[in-house]
Design a protein that fits this description.
This is Oxalate:formate antiporter. The chain is of the alpha+beta class and about 260 residues long. It has eight helices and 13 strands. Strands 1, 2, 3, 4, 5, 6, 7, 8, 9, 10, 11, 12 and 13 form a 13-stranded antiparallel beta sheet that branches. The chain is globular.
Length: about 260
């Protein structure tokens, strides 16, 4: 069975804007990719994808426009480690110096950078480092606005998927899909994301007039099993805020308690 849903019940976010990365639980590659559908060239640093093309200069394989669809159909969770950087064209790969190839190897092995992992020759926007995809990911964003855009897309799509599977709403009238949460709406959460916060789909409440998705500040975790234990402990306590979609106004807002 392909693991295309991440953890549907919650999303954990711990943002480090100084070093341009976010630790995530509950968002998988399939969801990440669909937030950035123009991604076509992925340099595969650690993977088990069998349809990749070898770049003879770096000896890394890559997925391109012709094979990315096959990658999206893979059970990437079963890969264990799945690490990649995007790149603009193969000419850039052929220009990489030995020390840059070594840095990419270090990135995928240690899940940490030696220096900021954004390369002029690749013109990359992301570095995606995951272990048991959807369970633990460390993703570098050249622009942190891309992180907020991705999160806003994934949260809305997660609720859309839940709506499609469960009779949350009254009557049989089909509701329009929720739009992504705008970047500007999510920006006030930056401080809580620096501390580590969990967004709970499990306790989302839907009515005729609005949708409420609660969140808690939970702290800094690298072990996601420990994070789940803490989530179980705090989920019965007052929430720290909620993401609210107003159906009448057709807009998102953040309420921080």
């Amino acid at each position: 069975m392909k693991n295309h849903g991440g953890n549907r019940e919650l999303i954990y976010v711990h943002a480090n804007e100084v070093n341009h990365y976010v630790l995530l639980h509950g968002i998988c590659f399939y969801e990440f990719y669909h937030a950035f559908p123009n991604l076509t060239n992925l340099l595969l640093l650690r993977h088990q994808f069998e349809a990749g093309t070898v770049n003879l200069h770096t000896l890394f394989e890559y997925a391109d426009e012709e094979t990315i669809g096959r990658l999206l159909e893979e059970d990437i969770y079963s890969y264990g480690d799945f690490c990649w950087v995007d790149f603009e064209d193969e000419e850039g790969l052929d220009l990489l110096e030995g020390y840059e190839i070594a840095e990419l190897l270090y990135l995928s092995h240690m899940k940490h950078h030696l220096r900021m992992p954004f390369y002029r020759k690749l013109n990359n926007h992301f570095v995606y480092l995951s272990q048991d995809d959807g369970y633990y990911s460390k993703i570098y964003f050249r622009s942190f606005r891309d992180f907020y855009a991705m999160l806003g897309y994934v949260v809305a799509e997660r609720i859309n998927r839940i709506k499609g599977e469960k009779p949350f709403l009254f009557g049989r009238k089909k509701r329009k899909a929720l739009p992504a949460i705008p970047v500007e709406v999510l920006l006030p959460l930056s401080e809580k994301m620096k501390e580590g916060m969990v967004i709970s789909m499990e306790y989302a409440v839907q009515t005729r007039v609005q949708i409420e998705i609660p969140f808690w500040t939970i702290g800094d975790f690298h072990d996601m099993d420990e994070m789940h234990e803490e989530y179980a402990a705090i989920s019965g306590t007052p929430i720290d805020g909620k993401m609210v979609y107003d159906r009448r106004m057709q807009e998102w807002k953040i309420l921080i308690h």
